[in-house]
Amino acid sequence: MTLSLRTYSRVTKKGQITIPSKLRKEFRLTAGKTVSFESSRQGILIKPIHDIMDSAGALAKCARRDMVKKDLLESRKKPFR
Questions:
Q1: Number of C-alpha atoms within 13 angstroms, CB side, residue 50?
Q2: Within its chain, how far is the Cα of 74 from the centroid?
Q3: pTM of the entire structure?
Q4: pLDDT tens-digit profile of 42-77?
């Protein structure tokens, strides 16, 4: 993470800015990604928002779909309390 990187961008008439390519690469900001804007004492803080769909399949190596389904159906047969 580069903390001392200082770059500049102009604000367009529509309020748009260009995030420098070095920062886009560092924070994996590609077309269609969502970011949040927060007001802070230092100014505006822009944070990437991670989409749950980006994580889809990340835990696939932990269990097979058929085993998860079987366990879920078995747990539904047990009494709640």
A1: 6
A2: 34
A3: 0.55
A4: 999 999 987 766 666 666 677 787 888 888 888 888
Q: Report the distance separating Cα 81 and Cα 78, nearest Å.
A: 9
For 17, residues 6+ apart whose C-beta sits below 8 A from its C-beta are 9, 10, 11
DSSP string, the chain: --SS--------TTS-----HHHHHHTT--TT-EEEEEEETTEEEEEEE--GGGGTTTTGGG--HHHHHHHHHHHHHS---
Nearest Cα neighbor of 32 from 50, 20, 45 is 50
Residue 14 tokens, joined: 């529509």
Asked whether the beta carbons of 57 and 65 are under 8 A apart, the reply is: no
